[in-house]
Write a structure and sequence with these properties.
Rossmann fold; Dihydrodipicolinate Reductase, domain 2; 346 residues; single chain; six-stranded parallel β-sheet; 2 domains
């Protein structure tokens, strides 16, 4: 089965990544139409790929040749676009963050169920081959009992006139909701759901109205702790987007797996024997074991997973319920930052 796609908000991340790397490369997808309010840009994009273009979402969603839509519009538009797409009988892959409020997320889920369409949320970093391997190693007990993890995703994002991510009314927040949501989702992929969250956010380097710096501390249902740090205020080459997972038998340290590219550098440090307490705490564990896997594009895997879900009637790797839960955790982090207190989720 080939799923025929329309794209809402085609001139941002969709143009840069999801269309060329995902929809066009996926074995079970076909690009049919693109939509964006920027007429000149979307017309040029449509000409490049030989597809139809629209400047109004209603026109694209009314096209009977489209089976599914990828929604890559600003966050504040997700709710209405999902509700309308579901009413038109389109399956939906919606970029994160799913919406601005928990209530919107809940209504999006119920509307999709009522109309018999699938809803998935774009946590494409779950599909990085190294993240999948780390999850497998954790599930196999190779690192023992998980005790802590850290996920970092930062970039340089100075003031840009009209940028919706720098307007809290349009994006819902700054670096935490935009990039931290991915990091939180990854740590929950490894450790299970968060049960408690504490957070600190501030606008430290720039003058826009959303935070450019955020640190989140999480407690997970398996007992592990997690740290998420995410900034709009660190030069791109200075942020190595680290992922660290620690357990009672070892650890794994990854550099560059968090982000939009499929690769990264990953080293596992696994204790092969049980040792007693060492007062000198020797650190001569060697260089660890490099994990080298053939990279697979995360956007392509995300689209193929979504299409297989439609064909087989199964759930995708990131459902609407996952998007709803992520929203609850992120909003709890903002509540914690504003109140100065921890917030319990479960």
């Amino acid at each position: 089965m080939t799923v025929r796609f329309g794209v809402l908000g085609a001139c941002g991340i969709a143009e840069r990544r999801t269309i060329p790397e995902g929809i066009l490369k996926a074995k079970n997808a076909e690009l049919v139409a693109v939509m964006d309010i920027q007429r000149e840009k979307v017309e040029k994009l449509a000409e490049e790929y030989g597809v139809m273009y629209f400047t109004k979402e209603e026109d694209l969603l009314s096209d009977s040749n489209i089976d599914a839509v990828y929604i890559a519009t600003p966050v504040y538009l997700h709710y209405q676009h999902v509700i309308t797409a579901a009413a038109k009988g389109k399956h939906i892959l919606c970029e994160k963050s799913m919406a601005k409020t928990v209530e919107e997320c809940e209504e999006m889920i119920s509307t999709c169920k009522r109309n018999g369409v699938k809803l998935s949320v774009g946590f494409m970093m779950r599909h990085n081959v190294y993240h999948e391997r780390i999850k497998e190693m954790l599930d196999n007990g190779e690192f023992g009992k998980p005790v802590m993890g850290r996920a970092q995703l930062s970039c340089w994002y100075p003031e840009i006139k009209g940028a919706w991510r720098q307007n809290p009314e349009l994006g819902g927040g700054g670096s935490l909701i935009d990039m931290g949501s991915h990091c939180i989702d990854l740590l929950e992929m490894f450790f299970g759901r968060a049960v408690k969250v504490s957070a600190f956010t501030k606008t430290n380097a720039f003058s826009y109205k959303v935070e450019d710096t955020a640190v989140v501390i999480l407690e997970f249902e398996n007992g592990a702790y997690g740290i998420v740090d995410t900034c709009f205020s660190i030069p791109d080459n200075s942020s190595k987007n680290m992922l660290e997972v620690y357990g009672t038998k070892g650890s794994v340290i990854a550099r560059g797996t968090i982000g939009q590219l499929p690769g990264g550098e990953v080293t596992a440090y696994v204790e092969r024997r049980t040792k007693g307490y060492e007062a000198e705490q020797a650190r001569a564990a060697g260089e660890g074991e490099k994990i080298v896997l053939a990279p697979k594009n995360t956007y392509q895997k995300e689209i193929e997973d979504f299409c297989e879900m439609i064909e087989n009637g199964e759930e995708s790797s990131s459902t609407g319920e996952d998007g709803l839960w992520n929203q609850k955790v992120v909003l709890a982090a903002y509540e914690s930052s504003n109140s100065g207190r921890s917030v319990r989720l479960i």
